[in-house]
Each structure stands twice: as C-alpha cells, then as structure tokens.
Amino acid sequence: MGVITLLTDFGHNNWFAGTMKGVTKAISPSADIVDICHEVQRLVGSYAEGRPGELIALVGSSGFLEIAINGASAREILDIDEGGEFILKVL
C-alpha cells in the first residue's frame, strides 16, 4: 500500500492511537503508519479562534485542511518540510 499518517486529538495518555494503528494494520498489513501528532485540540473556523500555542485544524480559504499552531510554526514543531506534502487520512 502506501503511507498512512495519523493526526488526531487522542492525546498520549490512553490507548486510542494504538488501537487505531492495530485496526489499520489489520485492514492493510503492508501500510506504513506515521504518527504526525495526537495533540490537535480542535477544529476551528479561523486562526483567531486558536488559543496561543494551541495546535488547531481548520479549513482554509482555498478549501484545504490546514494545520496550525497559534503563535508558532506548525511546520517546525511537526517537522514537515516547507512546501512539503503529507497525506491525511480520516478514519
């Protein structure tokens, strides 16, 4: 298959992300699973709705899902190359 990335609001103090990975591997054993982040606090309508330092997701003016951190660089914190692409799969 390919690469499946996980970007969730699950946090790291529970079993949810591990369960999602297990189910994903059961469905597609050859898939590579990459954790992007499990700390997205919420989906917001605009950048201004994010609290300082909060990792947010929003649909931008171009209609694409955007990941941002209010007052910081999500690209640097999530270690994504500038202009790079990644695949987000909603399960």
List the topology elements.
Elements (H helix, E strand, L loop, with lengths): L2 E5 L8 H12 L4 E6 L4 E3 L10 E5 L5 E5 L4 H4 L14
Describe the protein.
The protein is α/β, with parallel strands linked by helices and 91 residues long. The chain has one domain (3-77). Helix content is 18%, strand content 26%. It contains 2 helices and 5 strands; from the N terminus they run E-H-E-E-E-E-H. The chain has helices spanning 16-27, 74-77; strands at residues 3-7, 32-37, 42-44, 55-59, 65-69. Strands 3-4-5 form a 3-stranded mixed β-sheet, with no helix packed on it. A two-stranded parallel sheet has the order 1-2. Helix 1 links the parallel strand 1 and strand 2 (32-37). The protein is globular, with a radius of gyration of 14 Å. 5% of the residues are buried. The mean pLDDT is 77.
Describe the structure concisely for a colleague.
Helices cover 18% and strands 26% of the residues.
Name the overall outline. Answer: globular
Cα gyration radius (Å): 14 Å
Q: Give the SSE string.
A: EHEEEEH
Helix content: 10-25%
Strand order, main sheet: write it out. Answer: 3-4-5
**Category from helices, strands and their pairing:** alpha/beta
Question: Biggest sheet: strands, sense, closure?
Answer: 3 strands, mixed
Number of helices: 2
Distance between the termini: 16 Å
Unreliable runs: none
Binned strand content: 25-35%
Number of strands: 5
Mean pLDDT: 77
Question: How many domain regions?
Answer: 1
Top keywords for this entry?
alpha/beta, 91 residues, 2 helices
